[in-house]
């Protein structure tokens, strides 16, 4: 187990301008403790690489300070390193897939994922968004126009050195990394792949078999904390994952939503997780083969009783969540999808805007409260 603990005889105490923070993966094999200022700034990164290595639609890290006499750099023994570019290597847990660190080639400094921290409110201050230009449609940045009392920055590329994106921004000449030449999505098949391409699969449009998947209502629709277990049971087998609204294409889309629960946060390493709910019969592997839990570079981890999470063993991308309670319905990571319209993939997905799933369990209240308010406002306009 990777640890970095204090010797009781030399331990540091928190002061008015610093605090002790613990970082850990979902399974607990990788841990790191460090001293940091009470204000660590972060941006939500929307770049293509971040989405493809995480499976979610934006990632965030804070720099591990070297000026506060931290005891040692992170121990990487339980982590898998993935060099996503010449600039940096990403380190994720080899057992559960949690993205823990960025290691920069230029000077060797580390950044730690904000979702792996044990404290965030009053410590991590989210400034806004960066690399929005890779999203084509603005991605999740349109749902988070403000964080706390601050208007969220929206940079098309790197913060402070690129152009800012106006509120109505969509694909512009500043977009540089997509759509990529390997994308093979069509109207009837949506391609999904991780960054290293070790995981590749397709989602097909809903058909007659899609509505037969038996599944209780999720927290996204029926909050667990405010209802009895019977409220979410769904005894009439309502196919809630196939939304209906007034649009002509609603029957051809899948429900999607955002989650802030502890398990998803730690499984990815990031504060916000984006899932689409897709029947297993509508997930095809290469060659038209039916879905199975392991394929390509897939590794699995049982995050709780009866629950399996799949992630890429090479680049660490979270791919799916599935439960024995509803084995016919998968939660598929939105960050892997390659829809032509952009990251939100609205020609394939209908986003639930009534609530952030398990928002009450959020680690950073400013961020998720801003997301919740922005998501509701966006839903009222669309």
Rg calculated over all Cα atoms: 20 Å
Ends: how far apart?
48 Å
CATH architecture of the largest domain: Beta Complex
The amount of helix comes to under 10%
- The CATH topology of the largest domain turns out to be Metal Binding Protein, Guanine Nucleotide Exchange Factor, Chain A
How would you describe this structure to a colleague?
The protein folds into 2 domains: about 20-155, glutathione-dependent formaldehyde- activating enzyme (gfa) (Alpha-Beta Complex), CATH 3.90.1590.10; about 190-380, Metal Binding Protein, Guanine Nucleotide Exchange Factor, Chain A, CATH 2.170.150. The chain is about 10% helix and about 30% strand. The chain is built from 3 helices and 22 strands. It has helices at about 50-55, 260-270, 365-380, and strands spanning about 20-25, 30-35, 40-45, 60-65, 80-85, 90-95, 100-105, 110-115, 125-130, 145, 150, 155, 190-195, 200-205, 255-260, 275-280, 285, 300-305, 305-310, 320-325, 330-335, 350. The strands form 6 sheets. A 7-stranded mixed sheet has the order 18-19-20-21-16-15-22. Strands 4-8-7-6-5 form a 5-stranded antiparallel sheet, with no helix packed on it. The longest helix has 17 residues, at about 365-380. The radius of gyration is 20 Å and the shape is globular. The termini are far apart.
């Amino acid at each position: 187990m990777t640890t970095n603990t204090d010797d009781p005889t030399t331990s540091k105490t928190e002061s008015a301008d610093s605090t002790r923070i613990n970082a850990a993966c979902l399974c607990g094999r990788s841990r790191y403790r460090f001293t940091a200022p009470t204000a660590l700034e972060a941006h939500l990164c929307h770049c293509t690489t971040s989405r493809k290595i995480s499976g979610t639609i934006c990632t965030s890290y804070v720099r591990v300070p070297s000026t506060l006499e931290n005891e040692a750099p992170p121990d990487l023994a339980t982590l898998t390193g993935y060099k996503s570019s010449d600039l940096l290597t990403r380190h994720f847990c080899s057992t559960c897939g949690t993205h823990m660190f960025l290691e920069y080639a230029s000077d060797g400094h580390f950044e730690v994922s904000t979702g792996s921290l044990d404290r965030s409110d009053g410590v991590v201050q989210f400034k806004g968004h960066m690399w929005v230009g890779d999203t084509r449609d603005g991605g999740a940045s349109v749902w988070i126009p403000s964080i706390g009392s601050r208007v969220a920055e929206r940079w098309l590329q790197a913060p402070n050195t690129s152009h800012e994106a106006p509120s109505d921004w969509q694909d512009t000449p500043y977009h540089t990394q997509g759509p990529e030449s390997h994308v093979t999505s069509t109207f009837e098949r949506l391609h999904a792949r991780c960054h290293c391409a070790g995981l590749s699969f397709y989602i097909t449009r809903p058909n007659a078999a899609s509505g037969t998947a038996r599944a209780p209502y999720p927290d996204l629709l029926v909050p667990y904390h405010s209802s009895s277990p019977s409220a979410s049971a769904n005894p009439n087998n309502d196919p809630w994952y196939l939304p209906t609204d007034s649009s002509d294409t609603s029957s051809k889309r899948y429900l999607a939503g955002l989650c802030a629960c502890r398990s998803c946060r730690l499984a990815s390493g990031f504060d916000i997780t984006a899932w689409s709910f897709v029947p297993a019969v509508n997930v095809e592997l290469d060659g038209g083969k039916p879905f199975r839990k392991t394929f390509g570079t897939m590794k699995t981890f049982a995050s709780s009783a009866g629950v399996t999470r799949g992630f890429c063993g090479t680049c660490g991308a979270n791919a799916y969540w599935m439960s024995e309670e509803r084995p016919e319905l998968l939660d598929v990571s939105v960050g892997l999808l390659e829809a032509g319209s952009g990251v939100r993939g609205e020609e394939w997905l209908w986003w639930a805007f009534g609530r952030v799933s398990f928002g009450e369990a959020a680690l950073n209240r400013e961020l998720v409260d801003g997301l919740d308010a922005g998501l509701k406002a966006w839903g009222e306009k669309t």
